Amino acid sequence: MSKKLRILVSNDDGIDSPGIFALVKSLKQIADVIVAAPDRQQSAVGHSLTISDPLRVTPFHREGVMFGYSINGTPSDCVKLAIAELVEIQPDLVVSGINHGQNTAINILYSGTVSAATEGMLSGIPSIALSLASHSYEADMTFAGKVAQKLVLQMSNIKLPEGTLLNVNIPAIEEKLVKGYKVVRHNSTVWRDAYEKRKDPFGREYFWFSGEYAVNSENQDNNLELDDVALENGYVTINPIHYDITNLKFINEIQFLEKI
Amino acid sequence: MSKKLRILVSNDDGIDSPGIFALVKSLKQIADVIVAAPDRQQSAVGHSLTISDPLRVTPFHREGVMFGYSINGTPSDCVKLAIAELVEIQPDLVVSGINHGQNTAINILYSGTVSAATEGMLSGIPSIALSLASHSYEADMTFAGKVAQKLVLQMSNIKLPEGTLLNVNIPAIEEKLVKGYKVVRHNSTVWRDAYEKRKDPFGREYFWFSGEYAVNSENQDNNLELDDVALENGYVTINPIHYDITNLKFINEIQFLEKI
């Protein structure tokens, strides 16, 4: 390698989470790593931006390994602000994660991890989002760290089209049980919404989200081309995502609306 | 009409905003309307969900016209909770807006207005997001209200494919200057990120987002098929959006990653 790779790392679990620390430790072996991440847990914030409040930046370091900025914002804020104002040289890659919990199917839409990588992509920087299929903060991140390193080393062989990023999910199983890598598309799984109605200590009612993510059963016949199915079956999944969100096939069918 | 249409209305500017009130007043003329909206401004929250905090619901009414629920959550929370717990009968339509400010191109990703409609769509309910191209709270919403009514009356003639919703933008100009309706696709406009570095009264530094939305100049030659270009040119734009976010064309080019 002629020059050392520069990687900007972010996440949505917060700068103190084990996942981002594992990611930084692993990537440091092959690159210069700078971190810009939320100062606290920001899961399910989706693609939020902070526009009505000031953003504060605090220098951050951990165990002489991890360096960067802790920011009172969302994952999108962190990556935008880092690229626009905090880093002196544009990074070669943006890597977001390692998220505690999978980001497959509809979760991609709600994911702060993916939105951090999306901001990298929108700035024209190749970007990867990485998630481990376990919400436990004690989950072993060793294998996920290796996956991150391996994929980063492959990025020079990939010409990501404009507007596309890689969304990667890693099964939370022993490394020897992992079946391999699968290039996948997103499944159509959605949440079965439910809310628990509870009472607070003062007798006032509140609701708490208690939905269930149930892998789309129509597609459950081990169709390993689908992200959550392949993940459940022990594969590291790689989904190249973009935001081509106009339904072009349907456009002709509503042309009559131009005449209403 | 055999039975009266039932419409669930939400927004991201908050339940007190003029835009949602104009929308409700207009739709009440043709339908039963129930509101479930955030208790405060939630712009640019994207597709956020509240999962780590309780949601509180307060009955809301305004001027004997607008009835429903004020919720301390995001637009997505409001629609999910309303459909799962608050309304007795599943609504026939979800209408979100009228947003103060346009939701075109990349803004669709950040938009709480669109995310409220997206939740309706995910629940299998035909859904529309409506935005007016003016951030002013004094903006005249009369014409936008008429557009909402007109489109709702057309919904029985539209078979929205599964996973698709309508994202509608309305120019903030006098009604007589509006050129008509255009069915469009999203432009590739992104924000030119910038942050102002300021000092607070105690001398501490902070950053404030000051990015600029500049309509993609490559496409500015009055290509009226693009949402923000058509809007700028005085059209009401109708974009059928979906979340088909896997880049299927690119999948073959990264098959080699399965062997790393």
Structure in words:
2 copies of one chain form a homodimer. Chain A is an alpha/beta fold. The first copy, chain A, has a single domain (5-187, 221-259), classed as 3-Layer(aba) Sandwich (Stationary-phase Survival Protein Sure Homolog, Chain: A), CATH 3.40.1210.10. Chain A is built from 7 helices and 13 strands. The first copy, chain A, has helices spanning 18-28, 75-86, 107-110, 112-122, 142-154, 227-232, 248-251; strands at 5-10, 31-38, 57-62, 66-71, 93-100, 127-132, 165-170, 180-183, 191-192, 195-199, 205-209, 212-213, 235-241. In chain A, the strands form 3 sheets. Chain A has a 9-stranded mixed β-sheet. A two-stranded antiparallel sheet of chain A has the order 9-12. A two-stranded antiparallel ribbon of chain A has the order 10-11. Chain A is globular. The termini of chain A are far apart. The interface between A and B is large, with 84 and 84 residues.
Summary tags:
homodimer, 260 residues, alpha/beta, Stationary-phase Survival Protein Sure Homolog, Chain: A, nine-stranded mixed β-sheet, two-stranded antiparallel sheet, 27% strand, globular
Task: Give a brief rundown of this model.
Two copies of one chain form a homodimer. In chain A, helix 1 (18-28) crosses helix 5 and helix 2 packs parallel to helix 4 (112-122).
